[in-house]
Structure formats: structure tokens, C-alpha cells
Write a structure and sequence with these properties.
globular, about 25% strand, alpha/beta, Rossmann fold, four-stranded antiparallel beta sheet, 10 strands, about 240 residues
Length: about 240
């Protein structure tokens, strides 16, 4: 479904991503692991169209989407949940969710059905539907931004550090929900520093070190066959 070839990303003179190539098949969860500053988030931002690729190619369902804007990528069926966990703080939970469905606004029946599905998957959002999003806890905000991204009815979801700063109990809930989304047919590319947790749910994994792929394989292979600690910490 998603194929990245020789992707490079620069911030001025700094090369953050140095020729990364990876693929994500339909229905998979693929984990992208690595230390802070390895280039994981830059890779996701480039795929989502939020950061220009210096070179390389991004193909979605065989189509070259490298130059497309984030808005066009959403229309193509790709949504991203950034690590910044941005909600519209003064709007209610329900208003945030409905904004996520903006590109589907003409299909009211499908949007209504999808909203019910998200509220069933994230029941706390149903309970907080009239509450200002800025007053939610960190875990609740993470659930909201994932559900809001799902309101555009994507076929592939990019998740950037969904467990960041959350209590272990909430992390377990978030990962359970990611598995539920996958069971429903969603394809997921997951950036996560909690390598153990990510490898529990992923089909395959890539380890990024200093902007390059340092290791790849099935989740089990990466967990057992590589010196993950050394790769992860840059040793």
C-alpha cells in the first residue's frame, strides 16, 4: 500500500533522513523504531506531505504522491496523528471529532456511522463529548486526536509516539485500541520509542539510526535477532 524509496529530508544544511526505504502492506502494522533525533518523525511528516522531501519517492497504492500537500494526502486516504497531540482546546470533544470529518462532510450517513464507531471504540470520548478538549487528560487527548484522524475514514494511519508521556495503564489502552483499528482493516505505520510495546503488536519493524535504516525484519526477528538496545540507543 505504501512504498518509500530513498527518502531524504533536510532542515537547511542538516540532513535528518538519509535515503530511507520502507514498505507497508495493506492491513499491516509496521513499527518504525529508534532513538530521539533518529529521523522517525521527519519520515512520517514527509510521507504525510507536511515536510518536503529533498529527494526520493513516496508511492501510495502505486501512485507517486511525493509532491502532494497534507490536505491532498488526507483525500487520498492517509492521515497522520503527530506526537504534539494537538486538539482545538476551546472546542468540545464532539466539535473536534466533527472537524476531522471535514473532507467527508457531504456524506452525512457515512460520517454519522463513523462517528458512532469512534465513540464506541473510545467510550471516554462519549462521556466527555460536551467537554472542552483542552480540559482533557493527556491520555484522553491522545484518544481524541486518534479518533479525529479516523473521522476522515483513512485507509492508512501514521501514528507518531502515541504513548509519549502517558501512564502505563493508559498506554495499554491506547495500544489495545490500535489493535482494534487494525482488526477493522486499517493499515498503520507506527513510530514509537516504547520498542517492546510496539513489537508486541507490529507485524514488521524498521530500526532507524541517524537517519538511516539500521535493521529490519518481522517484529519477532527485530525483537530477538538484533541487538535492539544498541541499535536503539546508537551503540
Amino acid at each position: 500500500m505504501l512504498e518509500i524509496t530513498d527518502l531524504e529530508v533536510r532542515y537547511g544544511p542538516v540532513q535528518a533522513v538519509k535515503g530511507i526505504s520502507l514498505r507497508v502492506e495493506k492491513g499491516e502494522i509496521v513499527a518504525l523504531l529508534g532513538a530521539n533525533g533518529a529521523g522517525k518523525s521527519s519520515t512520517l511528516l514527509a510521507i504525510a506531505g507536511a515536510l518536503p522531501a529533498t529527494s526520493g519517492e513516496i508511492r501510495l497504492d502505486g501512485e507517486d504522491v511525493t509532491p502532494l500537500s497534507p490536505e491532498r494526502m488526507v483525500c487520498k486516504g492517509l492521515s497522520m496523528v503527530p506526537e504534539t497531540r494537538d486538539v482545538f482546546p476551546d472546542l468540545t470533544v464532539m466539535e473536534n471529532l466533527k472537524l476531522g470529518a471535514f473532507i467527508r462532510r457531504h456524506d452525512r450517513e457515512a460520517t454519522s456511522a463513523n462517528l458512532e464507531r469512534m465513540l464506541a471504540l473510545f467510550p471516554i470520548l462519549q462521556q466527555r463529548s460536551d467537554q472542552a478538549a483542552g480540559t482533557l487528560s493527556g491520555g484522553e487527548q491522545q484518544m481524541l486526536v486518534i479518533a479525529r484522524a479516523m473521522m476522515s475514514q483513512p485507509r492508512i494511519l501514521l501514528l507518531d509516539e502515541p504513548s509519549l508521556g502517558l501512564a502505563p495503564r493508559i498506554v495499554d489502552q491506547i495500544f489495545d485500541m490500535i489493535v482494534e483499528l487494525r482488526i477493522s482493516g486499517l493499515t498503520i505505520l507506527l513510530v514509537e520509542q516504547n520498542a517492546g510495546k510496539a513489537l508486541e503488536i507490529a507485524d514488521r519493524a524498521y530500526v532507524v539510526r541517524l537517519g538511516e535504516i539500521a535493521a529490519s525484519g518481522s517484529a519477532k526477528e527485530v525483537a530477538t535477532s538484533f541487538d535492539l538496545k544498541a541499535l536503539y540507543l546508537g551503540g
